[in-house]
Amino acid sequence: MPPTDEEIRVAIAALRSDADEWREWVRALARASTVVDELDLSVNDMCALSGVVGLPETYGALRQRAQTLAGQGVLRFAEVADALATAADGYERDERAAVHRLRGVW
User: Which end of the chain has fewer CB atoms < 10 Å from its terminal CB, N or C?
Assistant: First the structure.
């Protein structure tokens, strides 16, 4: 049995809602990337032994990795959001075309 008009509308709305949720995560990751960029401790900000144990280098590498991961997350999450929105648009177009064809037959 084919889905009802209401089931189709609900499914399309769910796709759009999911896309919005992924876009919210894009914004959160973009904010996280900005925060990481603003976190900047120098050797002078750390304890006297931090340079001896390599803390500034470790800290810098960790910051860089966090920025990279956040940036990659922004891109991938945006791709998922776009794919969901594109799917919703496609289903909506298909549904409009099917309704138009049915009305033409009747």
Answer: N
